[in-house]
Amino acid sequence: MVGLPGSGKTTYARRHLKDALRISLDDLRLMFSGKTFEPRVEPAVAVAGEALMEALARYAAQAGVDLVLDATNVTRARRALPISLAKRYGLSPVAIYLECPVPIAQMRNLRRAVPVPANVVASFGQRLEPPTVDEGFESIIRVNTSTAPRTAGPNTNRPNSRDPSTE
Length: 167
Ligand SMILES: Nc1ncnc2c1ncn2[C@@H]1O[C@H](COP(=O)(O)OP(=O)(O)O)[C@@H](O)[C@H]1O
Ligand SMILES: [Mg+2]
Fold this sequence. Notes:
The structure is a single chain. This protein is α/β, with parallel strands linked by helices. It has a single domain (9-147), classed as Rossmann fold (3-Layer(aba) Sandwich), CATH 3.40.50.300. The protein contains 6 helices and 4 strands; from the N terminus they run H-E-H-H-E-H-E-H-H-E. It has a two-stranded parallel sheet with strand order 1-2. Helix 3 runs parallel beside helix 4 (76-88). The radius of gyration is 16 Å and the shape is globular. Bound molecules: adenosine-5'-diphosphate (ADP) and magnesium ion (MG). Adenosine-5'-diphosphate binds at residues 3, 5-11, 108, 111-112, 145, 148, 150.
């Protein structure tokens, strides 16, 4: 997933990627600090997130399930490792880009159970580099969450799942 805090990543994944294994960096932040933003634990969150990605990429490829990285992933630098892991284990890297203007993300952020500070949403907005196929993504699914109803989007996006009819 790629999108600002409050852009709707977790909501989208829960609705449309129900069968996928979701790695949530926010859940790791909560586990380590009880908060969704605590700079002190960010290095540990990065280490744990990478370890989970590596272990679960291998598992997902063997088990034939999709893996969702539920994190902001707003820079190309942050996306490089998940893309290379996907390729190493034979998974198709797909970006799901939750396009959302900063003011709307800020408004939705406030409705979250545990909001991140407003200036954090703004700074992610400044750093955002939209995903492109030249980074290595096989495809990019753009979801316009500023206007779309909450149920918008593909409901069977399982690029790494085995289709038994073709096996
Ligand atoms: N497409 C949408 N339209 C309106 N509200 C949404 C939409 N997607 C999510 N929301 C709401 O916005 C808030 C933040 O959504 P969430 O999925 O937690 O964002 P993220 O995981 O990107 O931080 C939640 O209250 C959620 O119900
Ligand atoms: Mg979320």
